[in-house]
Description:
This protein is an alpha/beta fold. The protein contains 15 helices and ten strands. Strands 1, 2, 3, 8, 9 and 10 form a six-stranded mixed beta sheet that branches. Strands 4-5-6-7 form a four-stranded parallel beta sheet, with helices on both faces. Helix 3 crosses helix 11, helix 5 packs parallel to helix 7 and helix 9 runs parallel beside helix 10. The termini are far apart. The mean pLDDT is 95. Bound molecules: iron/sulfur cluster.
Amino acid sequence: xxxxxxxxxxxxxxxxxxxxxxEMYLSAPTHVLGQLANQVRNKRHPDRxxxxxxDRNVNYTNVCVARCSFCxxxxxxxxxxxxxxxxxxxxxxxxxxxxxxxxxxxxxxGHNPDLPIEWYEDLFREVKSRYxxxxxxxxxxPEVLHISRLAQTSVPDVVRRLVAAGLDSIPGGGAEILVDRxxxxxxxxxxxxxxxxxxxxxxxxxxxxxxxATMMYGSVETSAERIEHMSRLRALQDETGGFTAxxxxxxxxxxxxxQGVEATGVEYLRTLATARLFLDNVxxxxxxxxxxxxxxxxxxLAYGANDMGSVMIEENVVRAAGAAYCMDEIEIxxxxxxxxxxxxxxxxxxxxxxxxxxxxxxxxxxxxxxVARADGDTSVPAELVNYPARSRAERDRRAR
Length: 400
Ligand code: SF4
Protein backbone atom coordinates (compact mmCIF):
# COMPACT_ATOMS: atom_id res chain seq x y z
CA UNK A 1 0.00 0.00 0.00
CA UNK A 2 1.30 3.51 -0.74
CA UNK A 3 2.07 5.93 2.05
CA UNK A 4 -0.88 8.08 0.93
CA UNK A 5 -3.21 5.07 1.14
CA UNK A 6 -1.87 4.20 4.60
CA UNK A 7 -2.35 7.81 5.69
CA UNK A 8 -5.97 7.64 4.49
CA UNK A 9 -6.43 4.44 6.45
CA UNK A 10 -5.17 6.16 9.62
CA UNK A 11 -7.39 9.19 9.01
CA UNK A 12 -10.38 6.86 8.62
CA UNK A 13 -9.60 5.43 12.07
CA UNK A 14 -8.68 1.95 10.82
CA UNK A 15 -6.08 -0.14 12.60
CA UNK A 16 -2.62 -0.54 11.02
CA UNK A 17 -1.11 -4.00 10.71
CA UNK A 18 2.48 -4.58 11.83
CA UNK A 19 3.65 -4.54 8.19
CA UNK A 20 1.81 -1.28 7.54
CA UNK A 21 3.20 0.39 10.64
CA UNK A 22 6.69 -0.69 9.62
CA GLU A 23 6.15 0.75 6.16
CA MET A 24 5.05 4.06 7.67
CA TYR A 25 7.98 4.12 10.06
CA LEU A 26 10.53 3.36 7.37
CA SER A 27 9.17 5.33 4.43
CA ALA A 28 6.76 8.13 5.37
CA PRO A 29 8.32 11.61 5.34
CA THR A 30 8.87 12.80 8.91
CA HIS A 31 6.44 15.72 8.57
CA VAL A 32 3.73 13.36 7.29
CA LEU A 33 4.24 11.00 10.24
CA GLY A 34 4.08 13.98 12.60
CA GLN A 35 0.93 15.42 11.00
CA LEU A 36 -0.87 12.08 11.19
CA ALA A 37 0.22 11.42 14.77
CA ASN A 38 -0.93 14.92 15.69
CA GLN A 39 -4.33 14.31 14.08
CA VAL A 40 -4.77 11.03 15.95
CA ARG A 41 -3.66 12.70 19.20
CA ASN A 42 -6.09 15.59 18.70
CA LYS A 43 -8.95 13.22 18.02
CA ARG A 44 -8.27 11.38 21.29
CA HIS A 45 -7.44 14.49 23.32
CA PRO A 46 -9.37 17.33 21.67
CA ASP A 47 -9.14 19.79 24.55
CA ARG A 48 -5.49 20.90 23.94
CA UNK A 49 -4.47 19.79 27.43
CA UNK A 50 -0.97 18.47 28.06
CA UNK A 51 -0.56 16.75 31.40
CA UNK A 52 2.39 16.14 33.70
CA UNK A 53 2.90 14.60 37.12
CA UNK A 54 4.93 15.75 40.09
CA ASP A 55 6.60 12.67 41.48
CA ARG A 56 10.04 11.43 42.39
CA ASN A 57 12.09 8.65 40.82
CA VAL A 58 13.62 6.80 43.73
CA ASN A 59 15.98 3.90 43.13
CA TYR A 60 15.97 2.00 46.41
CA THR A 61 19.04 -0.09 45.54
CA ASN A 62 21.61 -0.24 42.75
CA VAL A 63 22.73 -3.76 43.65
CA CYS A 64 21.66 -6.08 40.88
CA VAL A 65 22.26 -9.65 39.83
CA ALA A 66 20.71 -9.17 36.38
CA ARG A 67 23.68 -7.28 34.89
CA CYS A 68 22.00 -6.09 31.67
CA SER A 69 24.62 -5.00 29.14
CA PHE A 70 22.87 -1.68 28.41
CA CYS A 71 22.78 -0.58 32.06
CA UNK A 72 25.27 1.84 33.60
CA UNK A 73 23.38 2.07 36.89
CA UNK A 74 23.78 -1.29 38.59
CA UNK A 75 26.59 -2.48 40.86
CA UNK A 76 27.28 -6.18 41.41
CA UNK A 77 26.63 -7.84 44.77
CA UNK A 78 29.47 -6.99 47.17
CA UNK A 79 30.56 -3.83 45.31
CA UNK A 80 31.77 -1.01 47.57
CA UNK A 81 29.57 1.31 45.46
CA UNK A 82 26.42 -0.74 46.08
CA UNK A 83 23.71 0.79 48.28
CA UNK A 84 20.30 0.10 49.75
CA UNK A 85 18.31 3.11 50.91
CA UNK A 86 17.06 3.07 54.48
CA UNK A 87 13.37 3.53 55.22
CA UNK A 88 14.15 6.90 56.84
CA UNK A 89 16.00 8.07 53.71
CA UNK A 90 12.95 7.16 51.63
CA UNK A 91 10.62 9.00 54.03
CA UNK A 92 12.87 12.07 53.71
CA UNK A 93 12.50 11.91 49.92
CA UNK A 94 8.71 11.65 50.30
CA UNK A 95 8.70 14.75 52.52
CA UNK A 96 10.64 16.70 49.85
CA UNK A 97 8.29 15.45 47.13
CA UNK A 98 5.24 16.58 49.08
CA UNK A 99 6.83 20.01 49.60
CA UNK A 100 7.13 20.34 45.80
CA UNK A 101 3.45 19.45 45.33
CA UNK A 102 3.98 15.79 44.49
CA UNK A 103 1.95 12.84 45.66
CA UNK A 104 3.77 9.78 44.35
CA UNK A 105 7.05 7.91 44.25
CA UNK A 106 8.18 6.02 41.19
CA UNK A 107 10.11 3.38 43.09
CA UNK A 108 12.37 1.03 41.17
CA UNK A 109 15.68 -0.64 41.80
CA GLY A 110 18.12 -3.42 41.03
CA HIS A 111 17.49 -7.10 41.62
CA ASN A 112 19.06 -7.28 45.04
CA PRO A 113 19.18 -10.84 46.46
CA ASP A 114 19.27 -9.52 50.04
CA LEU A 115 15.88 -7.80 49.88
CA PRO A 116 13.12 -10.39 50.40
CA ILE A 117 9.45 -9.67 49.80
CA GLU A 118 9.01 -8.78 53.50
CA TRP A 119 11.34 -5.77 53.03
CA TYR A 120 9.01 -4.37 50.35
CA GLU A 121 5.89 -5.17 52.35
CA ASP A 122 7.24 -3.47 55.46
CA LEU A 123 8.35 -0.42 53.47
CA PHE A 124 5.02 -0.06 51.68
CA ARG A 125 3.01 -0.50 54.89
CA GLU A 126 5.14 2.06 56.68
CA VAL A 127 4.79 4.58 53.82
CA LYS A 128 1.02 4.16 53.80
CA SER A 129 0.72 4.52 57.53
CA ARG A 130 2.77 7.74 57.57
CA TYR A 131 1.41 9.19 54.30
CA UNK A 132 -2.04 7.64 53.70
CA UNK A 133 -2.79 9.60 50.50
CA UNK A 134 0.65 9.12 48.99
CA UNK A 135 0.88 6.80 45.96
CA UNK A 136 3.38 4.05 45.28
CA UNK A 137 4.00 3.50 41.58
CA UNK A 138 6.54 0.78 42.12
CA UNK A 139 8.42 -2.28 40.91
CA UNK A 140 8.68 -2.97 37.20
CA UNK A 141 7.70 -6.46 35.95
CA PRO A 142 11.26 -7.87 36.14
CA GLU A 143 11.48 -6.73 39.79
CA VAL A 144 8.16 -8.42 40.54
CA LEU A 145 9.51 -11.59 38.91
CA HIS A 146 12.75 -11.33 40.87
CA ILE A 147 10.80 -11.01 44.13
CA SER A 148 8.61 -13.97 43.20
CA ARG A 149 11.66 -16.11 42.45
CA LEU A 150 13.31 -15.16 45.75
CA ALA A 151 10.11 -15.82 47.68
CA GLN A 152 9.42 -18.98 45.70
CA THR A 153 5.85 -17.93 45.18
CA SER A 154 3.78 -17.09 42.14
CA VAL A 155 3.55 -13.68 40.47
CA PRO A 156 -0.18 -13.32 41.28
CA ASP A 157 0.64 -14.03 44.94
CA VAL A 158 3.43 -11.40 44.95
CA VAL A 159 1.10 -8.87 43.34
CA ARG A 160 -1.62 -9.65 45.88
CA ARG A 161 0.76 -9.29 48.83
CA LEU A 162 2.30 -6.06 47.55
CA VAL A 163 -1.11 -4.54 46.82
CA ALA A 164 -2.23 -5.49 50.33
CA ALA A 165 0.86 -3.69 51.67
CA GLY A 166 0.20 -0.51 49.65
CA LEU A 167 1.29 -0.90 46.02
CA ASP A 168 -0.89 1.36 43.83
CA SER A 169 0.39 0.80 40.29
CA ILE A 170 3.27 -0.70 38.34
CA PRO A 171 5.67 1.18 36.06
CA GLY A 172 6.39 -0.34 32.66
CA GLY A 173 10.17 -0.50 33.05
CA GLY A 174 12.32 -3.43 32.07
CA ALA A 175 10.47 -4.00 28.82
CA GLU A 176 13.39 -2.84 26.66
CA ILE A 177 12.31 -4.62 23.45
CA LEU A 178 9.81 -7.43 23.95
CA VAL A 179 11.50 -9.80 21.50
CA ASP A 180 13.56 -12.63 22.95
CA ARG A 181 16.28 -12.44 20.26
CA UNK A 182 16.97 -8.86 21.38
CA UNK A 183 16.66 -9.66 25.09
CA UNK A 184 19.29 -12.40 24.78
CA UNK A 185 21.68 -9.99 23.05
CA UNK A 186 21.08 -7.39 25.79
CA UNK A 187 21.61 -9.96 28.58
CA UNK A 188 18.16 -9.24 29.93
CA UNK A 189 16.39 -12.42 28.82
CA UNK A 190 17.01 -14.19 32.13
CA UNK A 191 15.60 -11.32 34.20
CA UNK A 192 12.38 -11.58 32.17
CA UNK A 193 11.59 -13.03 28.76
CA UNK A 194 9.11 -11.14 26.58
CA UNK A 195 6.35 -13.55 27.63
CA UNK A 196 7.21 -13.18 31.32
CA UNK A 197 7.13 -9.37 31.15
CA UNK A 198 3.73 -9.49 29.44
CA UNK A 199 2.49 -12.06 31.94
CA UNK A 200 3.37 -9.92 34.99
CA UNK A 201 1.46 -7.04 33.42
CA UNK A 202 -1.47 -9.33 32.66
CA UNK A 203 -1.62 -10.41 36.32
CA UNK A 204 -1.28 -6.81 37.51
CA UNK A 205 -4.13 -5.68 35.24
CA UNK A 206 -6.29 -8.60 36.36
CA UNK A 207 -5.61 -7.59 39.96
CA UNK A 208 -7.04 -4.17 39.12
CA UNK A 209 -3.77 -2.26 38.86
CA UNK A 210 -3.13 0.22 36.09
CA UNK A 211 0.35 0.27 34.62
CA UNK A 212 2.41 2.05 32.01
CA ALA A 213 4.29 0.45 29.12
CA THR A 214 7.75 1.42 27.91
CA MET A 215 10.17 0.72 25.10
CA MET A 216 13.91 1.26 25.12
CA TYR A 217 14.88 1.42 21.45
CA GLY A 218 18.10 2.11 19.57
CA SER A 219 20.36 -0.66 20.90
CA VAL A 220 20.53 -3.86 18.86
CA GLU A 221 16.97 -4.30 17.63
CA THR A 222 15.72 -3.98 14.05
CA SER A 223 12.94 -1.60 13.04
CA ALA A 224 10.63 -4.59 12.60
CA GLU A 225 11.36 -5.65 16.18
CA ARG A 226 10.33 -2.21 17.46
CA ILE A 227 6.97 -2.72 15.79
CA GLU A 228 6.77 -6.29 17.12
CA HIS A 229 7.31 -4.84 20.62
CA MET A 230 4.43 -2.40 20.14
CA SER A 231 2.33 -5.25 18.78
CA ARG A 232 2.80 -7.27 22.00
CA LEU A 233 1.64 -4.26 24.01
CA ARG A 234 -1.34 -3.60 21.74
CA ALA A 235 -2.47 -7.22 22.01
CA LEU A 236 -2.32 -7.18 25.83
CA GLN A 237 -4.12 -3.86 25.90
CA ASP A 238 -6.91 -5.35 23.76
CA GLU A 239 -7.17 -8.11 26.35
CA THR A 240 -6.95 -6.14 29.62
CA GLY A 241 -7.13 -2.40 28.96
CA GLY A 242 -4.71 -1.84 31.84
CA PHE A 243 -2.09 0.38 30.23
CA THR A 244 -2.55 4.08 30.85
CA ALA A 245 0.40 5.27 28.78
CA UNK A 246 3.29 4.35 26.53
CA UNK A 247 6.75 5.82 26.96
CA UNK A 248 9.55 5.30 24.44
CA UNK A 249 13.10 6.33 25.20
CA UNK A 250 16.35 5.88 23.39
CA UNK A 251 19.14 3.66 24.67
CA UNK A 252 21.76 5.75 26.48
CA UNK A 253 25.14 4.16 25.71
CA UNK A 254 27.63 6.01 27.91
CA UNK A 255 29.41 3.93 30.60
CA UNK A 256 27.58 0.77 29.53
CA UNK A 257 29.13 -2.58 28.64
CA UNK A 258 27.26 -2.59 25.32
CA GLN A 259 28.36 0.92 24.29
CA GLY A 260 27.34 2.22 20.81
CA VAL A 261 25.76 5.50 19.74
CA GLU A 262 22.52 7.13 20.76
CA ALA A 263 19.60 7.39 18.32
CA THR A 264 19.01 10.89 16.95
CA GLY A 265 16.14 13.25 17.76
CA VAL A 266 14.43 12.60 14.41
CA GLU A 267 14.53 8.87 15.05
CA TYR A 268 12.89 9.52 18.40
CA LEU A 269 10.13 11.62 16.84
CA ARG A 270 9.50 9.04 14.10
CA THR A 271 9.31 6.24 16.69
CA LEU A 272 6.93 8.26 18.87
CA ALA A 273 4.69 9.20 15.93
CA THR A 274 4.56 5.59 14.72
CA ALA A 275 3.59 4.50 18.23
CA ARG A 276 0.71 6.99 18.20
CA LEU A 277 -0.53 5.54 14.90
CA PHE A 278 -0.06 1.88 15.86
CA LEU A 279 -1.03 1.88 19.54
CA ASP A 280 -4.59 2.93 18.87
CA ASN A 281 -5.82 1.51 22.19
CA VAL A 282 -3.32 3.25 24.51
CA UNK A 283 -4.71 6.62 25.59
CA UNK A 284 -1.58 8.55 26.54
CA UNK A 285 1.89 8.90 25.11
CA UNK A 286 4.61 10.55 27.18
CA UNK A 287 7.33 12.82 25.83
CA UNK A 288 10.66 11.48 27.01
CA UNK A 289 12.41 14.79 27.69
CA UNK A 290 14.56 12.96 30.26
CA UNK A 291 16.49 11.28 27.44
CA UNK A 292 15.80 13.77 24.61
CA UNK A 293 16.17 17.06 26.45
CA UNK A 294 13.57 19.82 26.82
CA UNK A 295 13.57 20.97 23.19
CA UNK A 296 12.89 17.59 21.58
CA UNK A 297 10.56 16.85 24.50
CA UNK A 298 8.55 19.94 23.61
CA UNK A 299 8.55 18.99 19.91
CA UNK A 300 7.15 15.59 20.89
CA LEU A 301 3.85 17.35 21.59
CA ALA A 302 3.51 17.83 17.82
CA TYR A 303 4.40 14.16 17.15
CA GLY A 304 1.69 12.42 19.12
CA ALA A 305 2.60 12.96 22.78
CA ASN A 306 -0.05 14.40 25.11
CA ASP A 307 1.89 14.16 28.35
CA MET A 308 5.21 15.55 29.54
CA GLY A 309 5.83 12.80 32.06
CA SER A 310 7.23 13.66 35.42
CA VAL A 311 8.83 16.62 37.08
CA MET A 312 12.10 14.80 37.60
CA ILE A 313 13.01 15.60 41.18
CA GLU A 314 15.59 12.83 41.26
CA GLU A 315 17.09 10.61 38.58
CA ASN A 316 19.87 8.02 38.83
CA VAL A 317 19.52 5.49 36.01
CA VAL A 318 19.67 7.62 32.86
CA ARG A 319 22.16 9.98 34.48
CA ALA A 320 24.54 7.03 35.05
CA ALA A 321 24.51 6.56 31.26
CA GLY A 322 25.30 10.18 30.53
CA ALA A 323 21.97 12.08 30.31
CA ALA A 324 21.12 14.54 33.10
CA TYR A 325 18.38 16.83 31.81
CA CYS A 326 16.52 18.67 34.52
CA MET A 327 13.16 20.51 34.36
CA ASP A 328 11.19 21.57 37.38
CA GLU A 329 7.48 22.32 37.24
CA ILE A 330 8.02 25.91 36.08
CA GLU A 331 10.14 24.75 33.14
CA ILE A 332 7.77 21.94 32.19
CA UNK A 333 4.80 24.31 32.20
CA UNK A 334 6.76 26.92 30.19
CA UNK A 335 7.53 24.30 27.53
CA UNK A 336 3.92 23.09 27.39
CA UNK A 337 2.41 26.58 27.18
CA UNK A 338 4.95 27.86 24.62
CA UNK A 339 3.88 24.95 22.41
CA UNK A 340 0.28 26.21 22.58
CA UNK A 341 -1.24 23.82 25.11
CA UNK A 342 -2.85 24.08 28.55
CA UNK A 343 -0.69 22.54 31.26
CA UNK A 344 -2.49 20.39 33.84
CA UNK A 345 -1.22 18.37 36.77
CA UNK A 346 -2.36 14.76 36.86
CA UNK A 347 -2.02 11.63 38.96
CA UNK A 348 -0.87 8.19 37.79
CA UNK A 349 -4.39 7.39 36.60
CA UNK A 350 -4.24 10.45 34.34
CA UNK A 351 -6.96 12.16 36.36
CA UNK A 352 -6.54 15.94 36.31
CA UNK A 353 -5.59 17.34 39.71
CA UNK A 354 -5.50 21.01 38.73
CA UNK A 355 -3.32 23.68 37.21
CA UNK A 356 0.34 24.25 38.02
CA UNK A 357 0.94 24.13 41.75
CA UNK A 358 3.50 26.97 41.62
CA UNK A 359 0.65 29.31 40.63
CA UNK A 360 -1.25 28.32 43.77
CA UNK A 361 1.54 28.49 46.31
CA UNK A 362 5.25 29.07 46.62
CA UNK A 363 7.33 25.96 45.89
CA UNK A 364 11.12 25.75 45.94
CA UNK A 365 12.83 25.97 42.52
CA UNK A 366 14.60 22.78 41.60
CA UNK A 367 17.41 23.48 39.20
CA UNK A 368 19.43 20.33 39.79
CA UNK A 369 18.36 16.72 39.95
CA UNK A 370 18.59 14.96 43.26
CA VAL A 371 20.46 11.68 43.57
CA ALA A 372 19.73 8.52 45.50
CA ARG A 373 22.67 9.06 47.84
CA ALA A 374 25.38 11.69 48.20
CA ASP A 375 28.74 10.57 46.75
CA GLY A 376 30.81 8.67 49.29
CA ASP A 377 27.85 7.87 51.57
CA THR A 378 28.26 4.15 52.22
CA SER A 379 25.92 3.91 55.19
CA VAL A 380 23.98 0.69 55.66
CA PRO A 381 20.39 1.00 56.90
CA ALA A 382 19.89 -0.41 60.39
CA GLU A 383 16.67 -2.25 59.52
CA LEU A 384 18.44 -4.48 56.96
CA VAL A 385 19.42 -6.89 59.74
CA ASN A 386 15.71 -7.67 60.14
CA TYR A 387 15.84 -9.54 56.84
CA PRO A 388 17.92 -12.66 56.25
CA ALA A 389 20.98 -12.12 54.05
CA ARG A 390 21.02 -14.35 51.02
CA SER A 391 24.24 -13.36 49.30
CA ARG A 392 27.60 -14.45 50.64
CA ALA A 393 28.90 -10.85 50.41
CA GLU A 394 26.12 -9.59 52.67
CA ARG A 395 26.55 -12.49 55.13
CA ASP A 396 30.29 -11.73 55.28
CA ARG A 397 29.64 -8.02 55.78
CA ARG A 398 27.33 -8.73 58.71
CA ALA A 399 29.79 -11.19 60.23
CA ARG A 400 32.44 -8.44 60.24
S1 SF4 B 1 18.51 -2.45 33.93
FE1 SF4 B 1 17.69 -2.97 35.94
S2 SF4 B 1 17.77 -5.20 35.96
FE2 SF4 B 1 19.17 -4.56 34.33
S3 SF4 B 1 21.20 -4.40 35.34
FE3 SF4 B 1 20.23 -2.35 35.41
S4 SF4 B 1 19.27 -2.31 37.42
FE4 SF4 B 1 19.65 -4.46 36.95
